[in-house]
Structure to design on (144 residues):
């Protein structure tokens, strides 16, 4: 079994921490809104506990990226321009823009929805997502 790269492990850990932080925010009656490319915390039930705010501050950068990515994904979907989809709605050829063979899609949408992105042209945010790689024969592999 191949070893995971350190960056991959760090991203997975960061994604887990973000998921926990967002779940806690929801339990506390907090929500995030994006204004001028920056997420803002809206408290619907009073000020959050100091410990939560400290964890929020520690995760500021990845949280900003995740909230902005979620806001972007909430808009009407626009497929990546270089991704060529097959009849099953998943990438079937290398990216027409860069020739990349690795793709990702948001995990909260069906894989066959057609909302796939090239991993090179548009690197994935730190969110749960589906991955797909085209092998040398053009056959997909991954969790798409």
């Amino acid at each position: 079994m191949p070893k995971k790269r350190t960056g991959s492990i760090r991203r997975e850990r960061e994604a887990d921490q973000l998921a926990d932080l967002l779940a806690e925010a929801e339990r506390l009656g907090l929500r995030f809104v994006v204004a001028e490319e920056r997420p803002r915390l809206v408290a619907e039930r009073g000020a959050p506990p100091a410990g939560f705010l400290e964890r929020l501050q520690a995760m500021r950068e990845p949280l900003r990226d995740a909230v902005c990515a979620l806001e972007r994904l909430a808009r009407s979907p626009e497929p990546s321009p270089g991704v060529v989809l097959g009849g099953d709605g998943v990438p079937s050829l290398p990216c027409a823009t860069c020739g990349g063979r690795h793709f990702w899609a948001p995990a909260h949408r069906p894989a066959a929805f057609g909302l796939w992105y090239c991993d090179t042209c548009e690197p994935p945010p730190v969110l749960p997502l589906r991955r797909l790689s085209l092998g040398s024969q053009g056959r997909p592999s991954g969790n798409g």
